[in-house]
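Chapter review: from sequence to fold.
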Amino acid sequence: MRSQAYEERLKAYEEQLKAYEGRAATVAGVGKDPVNEPMIRHWREAMGDTNPEYAGPDAMAPPTMLQVWTMGGLSGHTGRSEAYDELFALLDGAGYTSVVATDCEQEYLRPLRPGDEITFDALIESVSGRKTTKLGTGYFVTTRMDVRAGGELAGTHRFRILKYAPAQRKQRQRTEQPSPKDRSNPKSRRPRPVINRDNAGFWEGVARHQLLIQRCSGCGALRFPWLPGCNACGCLEWDTVEASGDGTVYSYVVMHHPPFPAFDPPYAVGLVELSEGVRMVSNVVGVPYDKVRIGMPVRLEFQRYDEELELPVFRPGGTGEGGGG
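The token string follows.
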């Protein structure tokens, strides 16, 4: 049971935190570059967005790039106030030394186009009361940024983080293979995929040992992962084609950390280009993690992890028609 003195100290501390609400985090910030076509092109290639409205010197920038034009890079921005650093120092000093981004919200008021000069102001919009999460106990801090183009408000970006003290966890002894008891323990099972009305057909195919790719009924473009509409022509009608199962490792990473109980790092996660031309992320199995290579031909198989979960993975082999680099 917490003492009255403790409660009074906590109240006084949280009043200190609340005093930062409404204070400026950045004043009269200036985007390091105007909105520009090369950056838009890089974004479109990274996101696989082929919408023609975002192509060419007269096109608009994808709205979700709003924050991109305000980023300060490694050298930061001028105009940053001391309030944000003071707030972080106050949280760090009380033991809330870890940080994780939790969510963001964006509101778009006008399109941004190549040549627009970006300015912005940011303020500390809110500091929550103390919250206890699975990560640990801490405080949510929300920053609001107003983004302007040529002095006109173009959009608002809210960014929320959690500053927390990590929860104490018992160290789990690692073994080469989990015991049957571990396999039945929900904490040691792989996370369940999020299934919704937009991707349910994909998972139904997996249950039948089919890897299904969406095909637009309007332009015939194939797409993966599944989306409610075509990002090439906007058509909402589609059917599916079954992948042959052949592919090539287009890129990959080796996961070492964090050591989730359901995984056994290090292991390879590949970006596999299927022979149909689309790419998907999956595990590369049947080969040591340090032997996976870009350009390696792979073949689809379905691997069962527990009584409820079966996933598409890739094993070296197959014809491997695809890209690389």
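Two observations follow directly from the output. The longest strand covers residues 152-166. The first helix runs from residue 4 to 18.
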